[in-house]
Amino acid sequence: MAEDNKTEQATPRRRQKAREKGQVARSRELIGSLAAAAVVLVLAAQAAAFPGEWRGLLRSALDRATGGELHPETPLWGWNHLAIFRGAGLAIGLGWMVAIAGAVAQGGLVFAPSTLAFNPSRLSPASRMRQLFSVTALSRMLKSLVPVAAMVYLTVTVLARDWTAVLDLPRLSARGLVGFSLEHIFEIAWKSSLVLLVWSGADYFFEHRKLEGDLRMSRQELRDEFKETEGNPTVKSRIRRLQRQVRRRRMLEEVKRASVVITNPSEFAVALEYRPMMAAPVVLAKGRNLLAQQIKQIARWHDIPLIENPPLAHALYRAVEVGQSIPPKLYTVVAGILAAIYRAQERAQHATGRGGR
Question: CB–CB of 3/214 below 8 Å?
């Protein structure tokens, strides 16, 4: 049932963890088949030069032997060995390079220190025997028998096609025998390499699908990973709520410095501050519904003028954020309100002064 619940694609973090453990889609058969194909092509390209190099070696050896100069320290051996095995060395080197390139192309450069850690079970004969006689080992053996059977079929087909020429081999000269053998060996080799490439490509496809299946995740695993990387959603929601509360308390404290509060009687409230040194009035606080009622209550407690202007309150609430200056298009309206407030305050102060006298 646990496997059935794994319906989600693996996340990048899960893929990275698998990579750190050395779990990548990689086919050993593809690496070997690429190297084999490279070796076959290089040897086939240099096959025409092999007979001449061997003839040169034999001719030089016979000449030295006739003159009595043939011994193990003769430079003949080193130079001719280098010429003869140069092609083999080139083929082997190119095969190694192609194999490394194929491995890197499949999974990139992977360094997994965890796989190098000491594991006593690897030294246990019982565990090794279980691996040798496991279903996985049996499936690998059966997979290897398929390309082997295909290569045997190709060999039999080639020989059956030219069976008449095979029967006539004893009548051929040495040159003809070598040419016939090399031609058919190369044909069998490149066809076998092609079979291996096709089979190893299919093997890589299945390995990739198997890895994707192993890395699939359940919804619970996705939630757990999200909690590990992003934090618990409940805790984060509580933190955001506390942050909003702190910002709200700080904003309500700023209302005490306001010059005027513009209201839409019951829905909006915007507190503005203006001082002579300011370029334009600044929004200290704004709120809607309950927060608007709190702003108006603070304004009443601190004798801050409350002006009902629904269009202006709505425009300020929608267009201006807390801490920003009002837009130029609202300068005239706000300036008129502030001027009216200042005139009212001056009249009140003047009336208070006269009453005191």
Answer: no
> b/e map of 28-55 (b: 16 or more CB within 10 Å)?
bbbbebbbbbbbbbbbbeebeeeeebee
* Of the candidates 149, 150, 241, the residue with the CA atom closest to the CA atom of residue 195: 150
Q: What pLDDT is recorded for position 73? A: 58
CA separation for the pair 264, 307 (Å, rounded): 9
Q: Give the span between the Cα atoms of 35 and 97, in whole angstroms.
A: 8
Whether 274 and 281 have beta carbons less than 8 Å apart is answered as yes
Kindly give the residue spans of alpha helices, DSSP state H, lying in 118-218.
Answer: 125-132, 135-161, 163-167, 174-215
Distance CA 12, CA 334 (A): 54
Interacting residues of 333 by C-beta distance below 8 A, sequence separation 6+: 309, 312
Taking alpha carbons only, the member of 306, 261, 256 closest to residue 286 is 261
Question: Which tens digit of pLDDT belongs to each residue from 324-349?
Answer: 888 888 888 888 888 888 888 788 77
Provide mean pLDDT across the span 176-205: 83
The number of residues making up the chain comes to 357
Task: Quick: pLDDT tens for 272-319.
Answer: 988 888 888 999 889 888 888 899 999 889 888 888 888 888 888 888
Q: 306-308 and 282-288: which strand pairing?
A: unpaired
Query: Computed from CA positions of residues 287, 290, 294, 300, in that sequence, does the dihedral angle turn out positive or negative?
Result: positive
pTM for the complete prediction?
A: 0.48
What pLDDT digit, counting tens, does each position of 10-53 carry?
777 788 777 777 677 777 788 888 888 888 887 777 766 666 66
Q: Say how far apart CA 323 and CA 21 lie, in whole Å.
A: 52
Q: What Cα–Cα distance (Å) separates residue 61 from each residue in 69, 79, 207, 296, 331? A: 9, 12, 53, 114, 109
Q: How far is CA 317 from the centre of its chain?
A: 44
